[in-house]
Design brief:
The structure holds two protein chains of two kinds. Helix content of chain A is 34%, strand content 25%. By secondary structure, chain A is an alpha+beta fold. Chain B is 32% helix and 14% strand. Chain B is globular and about 50 Å long. The chains are: A alpha+beta, B alpha+beta.
């Protein structure tokens, strides 16, 4: 099936990988977990560059930020002690739903983002965490907010570049936080029909002072529901507020109909899952509902 | 067409194979006669092609063979030891967990990886470990029972050298064999 592949490169340093990437140009593709490349079977690809030997398989947490190497597998995220506690374990939870164990042992966080899938489970979570991605070419290295990374369905701003690292900045201090990841799929580990990642922080009086609400599979790219976030700020969570936020989310999403679900159903479920997520966050953040 | 050399440890033996750069692990293994690695959906859904790479279950239909250079690969052919079936294989036979047999190699390898990390899994853990291995015959009940039974055998074997100390874990058996709904 892949008889059109002329070379399979296995660089061992980032520098070498970036030089190869420049050399092979548009006929080259980066491989890590290979789960997308193989299923897409793009016949224009002549060169593959395997980046799983560059030492980019790590999760490093410190007080300021959390750094995740691009080729860290879903299984590693899921079992990482750093991520099981960081932000309520929200990223580990999302990673645990990315396909079967076999898939999770192969699929990487970098691939989940760089393939540009609007349904990527780690993308919604990383948007809610204000993550940035470090992308590199042989000429330059830049850091992009994940919110600026997507250019459309299955398209990103990567331009002959390699996604090297995901950076999660320090969480805001000064108040209890709550986190939630909600996913609707045919099975627990199937592709999301809708996914929602939410984070809330409440002040001492139980009012929301910080809110993040991100959704996947309900628009051309993973997206932040910024209007719903703004609506929450300064308010004490109660059912009416969450209902209003859910309604705002339904207006902000822009889903399509496909073989898995209709646009109407996805829109409706966006509101339901957002409410559910916010309720869980509010409880963790110590808000009385 | 360029060819490249692949060095790996397959079922405990060193192998040096010549492969094409775009060869998938599934195709290479079957070409070399390891027909226990089944060709199923070829999109990483069904798990019939599961093998262990460095102890971890992966879909060999999605992995480029070149990526296993320097790795340890285990297929069902390497699970028996010296002509003696592994307790997992024995349990699959005993519990009637093999019907058409197409999913069996993948199931046993997924289960082997699970038991290596969790010698005393809950039924839910077994079901999660097998969730990437589709079976259209058994309804999953018998494979799940077989894995739980094999886990007890593994634990008894592991406990044997320590004489006079019965393993607490091996006593907790039948309570976990009750089936749960769905997978």
């Amino acid at each position: 099936m892949f008889d059109h592949i002329e070379q399979f490169y296995q660089p061992t340093t980032l520098r070498e990988a970036l030089l190869l990437l420049r050399k092979v140009g548009k006929h080259g593709r980066i491989v890590a977990g290979a789960t997308d490349i193989v299923t897409q079977a793009d016949r224009s690809t002549r060169f593959l560059i395997d980046i799983t030997r560059l030492g980019l398989n790590y999760v490093r947490g410190n007080n300021r930020e959390c750094l995740i190497g691009a080729t860290t597998t879903m299984a590693t995220l899921e079992h990482s002690w750093v991520l099981r506690t960081f932000a309520g374990g929200i990223l580990a939870k999302a990673a645990a739903t990315c396909g079967s164990i076999q898939n999770r042992n192969m699929a990487t966080v970098g691939g989940n983002l760089a393939n540009g899938s609007p349904a990527a489970d780690t993308a919604a979570v990383l948007l809610a965490l204000d993550a940035q991605v470090v992308v590199a070419s042989s000429r330059r290295k830049r850091k992009i907010a994940l919110a600026e990374f997507y250019a459309g369905p299955h398209r990103t701003v990567l331009n002959g570049e390699l996604l090297e690292e995901v950076v999660i900045p320090a969480l805001p201090g000064g108040g209890r936080m709550g986190w939630s990841f909600q996913k609707l799929g045919r099975t627990e580990t199937d592709i999301s029909l809708v996914n929602v990642a939410a984070g809330l922080q409440a002040d001492a009086r139980g009012r929301i002072k910080w809110a993040r609400l991100a959704l996947g599979a309900v628009g051309p790219t993973p997206l932040r529901a910024r209007k719903a976030e703004t609506l929450l700020l300064g308010n004490t969570p109660h059912e009416d507020l969450l209902t209003a936020a859910g309604q705002a989310v339904m207006k902000e999403v822009n889903p399509i109909s496909d073989s898995r679900a209709s646009a109407e159903y996805r829109r409706e479920m966006s509101g339901v899952l957002a409410r559910r997520a916010l309720r869980e966050c509010a409880a963790q953040a110590g808000c009385k509902m | 067409m360029n060819s490249m050399q692949l060095d790996l440890q397959l079922n405990g033996e060193f192998k040096r194979w010549t492969i094409a750069p775009g060869d998938l692990l599934l195709d290479v293994l079957r070409r070399e006669g390891y027909f226990g690695v089944k060709r199923g959906c070829e999109t990483g859904e069904c798990g019939a092609c599961t093998v262990l790479v460095n102890g971890k279950p992966i879909n060999s239909c999605l992995m480029f063979a070149a990526q296993t250079d320097g790795c340890e690969v285990l297929t069902i052919e390497g699970v028996e030891q010296g002509g003696k079936l592994d307790p997992l294989q024995e349990a699959f036979l005993e519990y009637g967990a093999v019907q058409c047999g197409y999913c069996t190699p993948g199931m046993i390898l997924s289960a082997k990886a699970l038991l290596a990390e969790h010698p005393d899994p809950t039924e839910a853990e077994v079901r999660e470990a097998l969730a990437g291995n589709f079976c259209r015959c058994t309804g999953y009940l018998k494979p799940v029972e077989a894995v739980l039974a094999a886990a007890r055998v593994y634990r008894t074997q592991a406990a044997k050298p320590q004489k006079g100390r019965t393993s607490q874990k091996s006593k907790r058996k039948s309570q976990k064999s009750k089936p749960a709904e769905g997978l």
